[in-house]
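Sample pair:
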Amino acid sequence: MATKSDMTFMKSDMALMKSDMTLMRSDMASLKSDMASMKSDMTLMKSDMTLMKSDMASLKSDVVSLKSDVVSLKSDVVSMKSDVVSMKSDLGSTKSDLASTKAELRAEMRAGFADAKRYTDVLFESLKDDIRIVADGVATIAAKLDKRA
């Protein structure tokens, strides 16, 4: 049989156990509250993850679109480069044509000036002859007028 001191000791142990149980219940309630909070946080994170996945899909689509645009721009630049090379070639050809036309025009102008000079020389000769004839006529009239006077 248990003695009185054993019984007191057991009562004391029981009181400690009861106190420990109360603390454990309190801890369990706190853990339960923490778990509920964590569950709520997990739900929010799951929602955030879903949004992030959606955003990532949208970004991926945008990147694919940008890549397509870059490829298109690259093609345009290559085409423009080809056009510039073609224009440069055309410009060289045009420059050559202009130089040739310039030389032809100068030759034609020189020939035209030479023809105009010859024609002007002929006109001046004819004009000199006409002036001589008029001068001879004026001299003859002056001589006749001197004889009458």
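The CA atoms of residues 31 and 37 lie 10 Å apart.
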